[in-house]
Protein backbone atom coordinates (compact mmCIF):
# COMPACT_ATOMS: atom_id res chain seq x y z
CA UNK A 1 0.00 0.00 0.00
CA UNK A 2 1.10 3.55 -0.68
CA UNK A 3 2.37 5.50 2.31
CA UNK A 4 0.91 8.93 3.02
CA UNK A 5 2.84 12.00 4.14
CA UNK A 6 1.26 15.18 5.49
CA UNK A 7 3.52 18.09 4.58
CA UNK A 8 3.08 21.22 6.70
CA UNK A 9 4.39 24.24 4.86
CA UNK A 10 4.26 22.29 1.61
CA UNK A 11 3.45 25.43 -0.40
CA UNK A 12 6.81 26.96 0.52
CA UNK A 13 10.23 26.69 -1.10
CA UNK A 14 11.77 23.57 0.46
CA UNK A 15 8.42 22.02 1.34
CA UNK A 16 7.12 22.09 -2.24
CA UNK A 17 10.29 20.52 -3.63
CA UNK A 18 9.98 17.77 -1.02
CA UNK A 19 6.32 17.22 -1.97
CA UNK A 20 7.43 16.54 -5.54
CA UNK A 21 10.14 14.14 -4.34
CA UNK A 22 7.72 12.20 -2.12
CA UNK A 23 5.14 11.98 -4.91
CA UNK A 24 7.74 10.87 -7.44
CA UNK A 25 8.79 8.13 -5.01
CA UNK A 26 5.21 6.84 -4.82
CA UNK A 27 3.89 8.47 -1.64
CA UNK A 28 0.46 10.03 -1.31
CA UNK A 29 1.11 13.68 -0.50
CA UNK A 30 -1.22 16.02 1.42
CA UNK A 31 -0.17 19.64 1.92
CA UNK A 32 -1.24 21.72 4.91
CA UNK A 33 -0.31 25.40 4.65
CA UNK A 34 -1.80 28.69 5.81
CA UNK A 35 -0.42 30.35 2.63
CA UNK A 36 0.95 33.29 4.62
CA UNK A 37 4.31 32.78 2.92
CA UNK A 38 3.63 29.89 0.57
CA UNK A 39 2.22 29.75 -2.93
CA UNK A 40 -0.95 27.94 -3.91
CA UNK A 41 0.37 27.18 -7.38
CA UNK A 42 3.35 25.31 -5.89
CA UNK A 43 0.99 22.61 -4.58
CA UNK A 44 0.80 20.20 -7.51
CA UNK A 45 1.15 16.76 -5.96
CA UNK A 46 -1.96 15.98 -3.98
CA UNK A 47 -4.54 18.09 -2.15
CA UNK A 48 -3.98 21.38 -0.35
CA UNK A 49 -5.67 22.02 2.98
CA UNK A 50 -5.46 25.69 3.92
CA UNK A 51 -4.95 25.64 7.68
CA UNK A 52 -2.57 27.00 10.30
CA UNK A 53 -0.65 24.48 12.42
CA UNK A 54 -1.84 26.37 15.52
CA UNK A 55 -5.45 25.53 14.61
CA UNK A 56 -5.69 22.29 16.57
CA UNK A 57 -9.25 21.50 15.48
CA UNK A 58 -8.38 21.91 11.80
CA UNK A 59 -5.13 19.94 12.04
CA UNK A 60 -6.82 17.12 13.94
CA UNK A 61 -9.50 16.89 11.24
CA UNK A 62 -6.81 16.57 8.55
CA UNK A 63 -4.97 13.90 10.51
CA UNK A 64 -8.18 11.95 11.09
CA UNK A 65 -9.16 12.20 7.41
CA UNK A 66 -5.87 11.24 5.77
CA UNK A 67 -4.25 9.14 8.54
CA UNK A 68 -0.68 9.91 7.43
CA UNK A 69 2.17 7.50 8.07
CA UNK A 70 4.44 10.51 8.52
CA UNK A 71 4.23 14.26 9.10
CA UNK A 72 6.94 16.26 7.33
CA UNK A 73 7.02 19.58 9.16
CA UNK A 74 8.30 22.60 7.22
CA UNK A 75 5.83 25.27 8.37
CA UNK A 76 7.92 28.04 9.91
CA UNK A 77 9.07 31.61 9.62
CA UNK A 78 12.69 31.59 8.50
CA UNK A 79 14.23 35.07 8.25
CA UNK A 80 17.15 35.60 10.63
CA UNK A 81 16.95 39.39 10.49
CA UNK A 82 13.20 39.42 11.04
CA UNK A 83 13.60 37.11 14.03
CA UNK A 84 15.98 39.59 15.64
CA UNK A 85 13.65 42.52 14.99
CA UNK A 86 10.45 40.68 16.02
CA UNK A 87 11.24 37.54 18.02
CA UNK A 88 7.70 37.14 19.37
CA UNK A 89 6.29 35.98 16.04
CA UNK A 90 9.04 33.36 15.76
CA UNK A 91 8.39 31.83 19.15
CA UNK A 92 4.66 31.96 18.48
CA UNK A 93 4.63 30.57 14.94
CA UNK A 94 7.61 28.23 15.02
CA UNK A 95 7.81 26.99 18.60
CA UNK A 96 4.27 27.29 19.91
CA UNK A 97 2.92 26.25 16.52
CA UNK A 98 5.00 23.08 16.55
CA UNK A 99 3.86 22.25 20.08
CA UNK A 100 0.26 22.57 18.90
CA UNK A 101 1.02 20.32 15.92
CA UNK A 102 2.65 17.67 18.11
CA UNK A 103 -0.29 17.69 20.50
CA UNK A 104 -2.67 17.27 17.57
CA UNK A 105 -0.57 14.34 16.35
CA UNK A 106 -0.66 12.72 19.77
CA UNK A 107 -4.44 13.06 19.93
CA UNK A 108 -4.76 11.48 16.48
CA UNK A 109 -2.34 8.63 17.20
CA UNK A 110 0.18 9.88 14.62
CA UNK A 111 3.67 9.23 15.96
CA UNK A 112 6.27 10.05 13.29
CA UNK A 113 7.53 13.54 12.43
CA UNK A 114 10.23 14.67 10.06
CA UNK A 115 11.36 18.13 11.20
CA UNK A 116 12.91 20.88 9.09
CA UNK A 117 15.58 22.23 11.46
CA UNK A 118 18.55 24.48 10.84
CA UNK A 119 22.28 24.99 11.20
CA UNK A 120 21.38 28.31 12.86
CA UNK A 121 21.05 26.32 16.08
CA UNK A 122 24.85 25.99 16.21
CA UNK A 123 25.58 29.71 16.45
CA UNK A 124 29.21 30.69 15.92
CA UNK A 125 31.17 27.52 15.11
CA UNK A 126 33.84 26.30 17.48
CA UNK A 127 35.19 24.02 14.76
CA UNK A 128 34.60 23.42 11.05
CA UNK A 129 33.15 21.37 9.48
CA UNK A 130 30.31 21.21 11.98
CA UNK A 131 29.07 17.77 12.99
CA UNK A 132 26.00 16.87 15.03
CA UNK A 133 27.95 16.75 18.31
CA UNK A 134 28.90 20.42 17.98
CA UNK A 135 27.41 22.49 20.83
CA UNK A 136 24.19 24.29 20.00
CA UNK A 137 24.34 27.96 20.98
CA UNK A 138 22.08 30.01 18.69
CA UNK A 139 22.77 33.72 18.26
CA UNK A 140 19.37 34.67 16.85
CA UNK A 141 15.75 33.94 17.79
CA UNK A 142 15.17 31.93 14.61
CA UNK A 143 17.88 29.48 15.67
CA UNK A 144 16.51 29.35 19.21
CA UNK A 145 12.96 28.71 17.99
CA UNK A 146 14.18 25.64 16.08
CA UNK A 147 16.51 24.37 18.79
CA UNK A 148 13.67 24.42 21.33
CA UNK A 149 11.61 22.30 18.93
CA UNK A 150 14.44 19.76 18.70
CA UNK A 151 14.39 19.50 22.49
CA UNK A 152 10.63 19.05 22.45
CA UNK A 153 11.00 16.19 19.99
CA UNK A 154 13.56 14.48 22.22
CA UNK A 155 11.26 14.83 25.22
CA UNK A 156 8.19 13.66 23.28
CA UNK A 157 10.17 10.66 22.13
CA UNK A 158 11.00 9.64 25.67
CA UNK A 159 7.61 10.40 27.18
CA UNK A 160 5.17 9.56 24.40
CA UNK A 161 7.11 7.26 22.03
CA UNK A 162 6.97 9.81 19.24
CA UNK A 163 9.60 9.11 16.57
CA UNK A 164 11.39 11.99 14.87
CA UNK A 165 14.19 13.02 12.58
CA UNK A 166 15.50 16.58 12.83
CA UNK A 167 17.32 17.64 9.67
CA UNK A 168 19.63 20.58 10.26
CA UNK A 169 19.86 22.29 6.88
CA UNK A 170 22.73 24.46 5.92
CA UNK A 171 21.93 26.93 3.10
CA UNK A 172 19.14 25.59 0.90
CA UNK A 173 19.62 26.84 -2.64
CA UNK A 174 18.81 26.22 -6.28
CA UNK A 175 15.56 25.26 -7.99
CA UNK A 176 13.85 22.25 -9.51
CA UNK A 177 15.89 21.36 -12.63
CA UNK A 178 12.62 20.57 -14.46
CA UNK A 179 11.51 24.17 -13.98
CA UNK A 180 8.28 23.26 -12.16
CA UNK A 181 9.26 24.85 -8.87
CA UNK A 182 11.51 27.68 -7.76
CA UNK A 183 12.52 29.96 -4.93
CA UNK A 184 10.04 32.73 -4.15
CA UNK A 185 10.09 34.77 -0.98
CA UNK A 186 8.53 38.12 -0.19
CA UNK A 187 10.76 39.82 0.66
CA UNK A 188 13.63 37.87 -0.89
CA UNK A 189 16.61 37.70 1.47
CA UNK A 190 18.54 34.71 0.12
CA UNK A 191 21.89 35.43 -1.46
CA UNK A 192 21.66 33.49 -4.73
CA UNK A 193 18.35 34.87 -6.07
CA UNK A 194 19.41 38.36 -5.00
CA UNK A 195 22.78 38.02 -6.74
CA UNK A 196 21.07 36.74 -9.90
CA UNK A 197 18.68 39.68 -9.80
CA UNK A 198 21.66 42.05 -9.49
CA UNK A 199 23.23 40.41 -12.54
CA UNK A 200 20.08 40.74 -14.64
CA UNK A 201 18.87 44.06 -13.24
CA UNK A 202 21.60 46.72 -12.77
CA UNK A 203 19.06 48.90 -10.97
CA UNK A 204 18.87 46.32 -8.16
CA UNK A 205 22.37 45.98 -6.69
CA UNK A 206 23.37 43.13 -4.43
CA UNK A 207 24.43 44.18 -0.93
CA UNK A 208 27.24 42.24 0.70
CA UNK A 209 26.25 42.13 4.36
CA UNK A 210 29.63 42.44 5.99
CA UNK A 211 33.13 42.48 4.55
CA UNK A 212 35.01 42.37 7.85
CA UNK A 213 34.31 38.79 8.94
CA UNK A 214 37.30 36.68 10.10
CA UNK A 215 37.33 34.77 6.80
CA UNK A 216 39.92 34.70 3.97
CA UNK A 217 38.18 37.41 1.91
CA UNK A 218 36.24 39.11 4.72
CA UNK A 219 32.80 37.97 3.54
CA UNK A 220 30.65 35.36 5.22
CA UNK A 221 31.07 31.72 4.20
CA UNK A 222 28.11 29.39 3.77
CA UNK A 223 27.53 25.78 2.75
CA UNK A 224 25.03 25.85 -0.14
CA UNK A 225 23.02 22.67 -0.70
CA UNK A 226 20.69 22.10 -3.62
CA UNK A 227 17.06 21.84 -2.62
CA UNK A 228 16.74 18.56 -4.54
CA UNK A 229 19.50 17.04 -2.42
CA UNK A 230 17.54 18.16 0.65
CA UNK A 231 14.45 16.50 -0.76
CA UNK A 232 16.25 13.20 -1.26
CA UNK A 233 17.45 13.29 2.34
CA UNK A 234 13.85 13.74 3.49
CA UNK A 235 12.80 10.68 1.52
CA UNK A 236 15.51 8.54 3.06
CA UNK A 237 14.79 9.85 6.56
CA UNK A 238 11.05 9.28 6.11
CA UNK A 239 11.60 5.68 5.05
CA UNK A 240 13.87 5.14 8.07
CA UNK A 241 11.27 6.55 10.47
CA UNK A 242 8.51 4.35 9.07
CA UNK A 243 10.78 1.29 9.25
CA UNK A 244 12.26 1.65 12.71
CA UNK A 245 11.32 4.88 14.49
CA UNK A 246 13.57 6.46 17.09
CA UNK A 247 14.88 10.00 17.60
CA UNK A 248 17.56 11.16 15.18
CA UNK A 249 19.43 14.30 14.11
CA UNK A 250 21.34 14.83 10.86
CA UNK A 251 23.21 17.69 9.27
CA UNK A 252 22.46 18.32 5.61
CA UNK A 253 25.24 20.16 3.82
CA UNK A 254 28.11 19.55 1.43
CA UNK A 255 31.25 20.13 3.49
CA UNK A 256 32.24 22.91 1.07
CA UNK A 257 32.05 26.57 1.99
CA UNK A 258 31.51 29.40 -0.50
CA UNK A 259 32.08 33.00 0.51
CA UNK A 260 29.73 35.75 -0.62
CA UNK A 261 32.45 37.21 -2.84
CA UNK A 262 33.07 33.78 -4.38
CA UNK A 263 29.33 33.47 -4.94
CA UNK A 264 29.26 36.77 -6.82
CA UNK A 265 32.05 35.49 -9.10
CA UNK A 266 30.13 32.26 -9.70
CA UNK A 267 26.97 34.15 -10.67
CA UNK A 268 29.00 36.19 -13.16
CA UNK A 269 30.59 33.02 -14.52
CA UNK A 270 27.29 31.19 -14.99
CA UNK A 271 25.08 34.08 -16.11
CA UNK A 272 27.57 35.98 -18.23
CA UNK A 273 26.50 39.19 -16.46
CA UNK A 274 28.39 41.07 -13.77
CA UNK A 275 26.21 41.62 -10.68
CA UNK A 276 26.12 45.20 -9.45
CA UNK A 277 27.45 45.06 -5.90
CA UNK A 278 27.55 47.39 -2.93
CA UNK A 279 28.98 46.81 0.50
CA UNK A 280 26.97 47.06 3.69
CA UNK A 281 27.32 46.32 7.41
CA UNK A 282 26.94 42.89 8.94
CA UNK A 283 23.43 41.68 9.65
CA UNK A 284 22.63 41.05 13.30
CA UNK A 285 22.68 37.35 14.13
CA UNK A 286 24.97 36.20 11.31
CA UNK A 287 27.96 33.95 12.15
CA UNK A 288 31.06 34.28 9.94
CA UNK A 289 31.16 30.68 8.71
CA UNK A 290 28.80 27.70 8.56
CA UNK A 291 30.04 24.53 6.85
CA UNK A 292 28.62 21.06 7.51
CA UNK A 293 29.94 17.60 8.04
CA UNK A 294 27.41 15.22 6.46
CA UNK A 295 29.29 12.07 7.50
CA UNK A 296 26.50 10.89 9.81
CA UNK A 297 23.81 11.24 7.12
CA UNK A 298 26.04 9.35 4.69
CA UNK A 299 26.69 6.60 7.21
CA UNK A 300 23.17 6.13 8.59
CA UNK A 301 20.91 7.23 5.71
CA UNK A 302 23.12 6.42 2.76
CA UNK A 303 22.77 10.06 1.66
CA UNK A 304 25.25 12.39 0.06
CA UNK A 305 24.76 15.59 -1.96
CA UNK A 306 24.78 14.93 -5.71
CA UNK A 307 23.45 18.17 -7.21
CA UNK A 308 25.09 20.76 -5.01
CA UNK A 309 28.00 22.08 -7.03
CA UNK A 310 27.74 25.86 -6.81
CA UNK A 311 27.60 26.34 -10.59
CA UNK A 312 24.75 23.81 -10.99
CA UNK A 313 22.87 25.43 -8.11
CA UNK A 314 23.16 28.81 -9.82
CA UNK A 315 22.23 27.35 -13.24
CA UNK A 316 18.94 25.97 -11.89
CA UNK A 317 18.18 29.17 -9.99
CA UNK A 318 19.02 31.27 -13.05
CA UNK A 319 16.69 29.26 -15.28
CA UNK A 320 13.86 29.71 -12.81
CA UNK A 321 14.56 33.42 -12.41
CA UNK A 322 14.72 34.05 -16.14
CA UNK A 323 11.41 32.22 -16.62
CA UNK A 324 9.78 33.89 -13.60
CA UNK A 325 11.37 37.34 -13.31
CA UNK A 326 10.66 39.31 -10.15
CA UNK A 327 8.31 42.24 -10.51
UniProtKB/TrEMBL annotation:
Q: How does it assemble?
A: Homodimer.
Molecular function (GO) terms for this protein are: UDP-glucose 4-epimerase activity
Domain of life per record: Bacteria
Q: What's the catalysed reaction?
A: UDP-alpha-D-glucose = UDP-alpha-D-galactose
Concerning its family, UniProt says: Belongs to the NAD(P)-dependent epimerase/dehydratase family.
- Tell me what organism the protein belongs to: Bradyrhizobium zhanjiangense
User: What is the recorded name of this protein?
Assistant: UDP-glucose 4-epimerase
Pathway given in the UniProt record? Carbohydrate metabolism; galactose metabolism
**Matching Pfam families:** Epimerase
Give the keywords, sorted: Carbohydrate metabolism, Isomerase, NAD
Q: Which part of the chain is the NAD-dependent epimerase/dehydratase domain?
A: 5-253
The question of whether Ribosomal protein is a record keyword is answered with no
EC number(s) in its UniProt entry? Answer: 5.1.3.2
Q: Which cofactor(s) are needed, names only? A: NAD(+)
Q: What is the lineage of its organism?
A: Bacteria, Pseudomonadati, Pseudomonadota, Alphaproteobacteria, Hyphomicrobiales
In the UniProt record, the gene name given for this protein reads galE
What InterPro entries is this protein classified in?
A: Epimerase_deHydtase, NAD(P)-bd_dom_sf, UDP_G4E
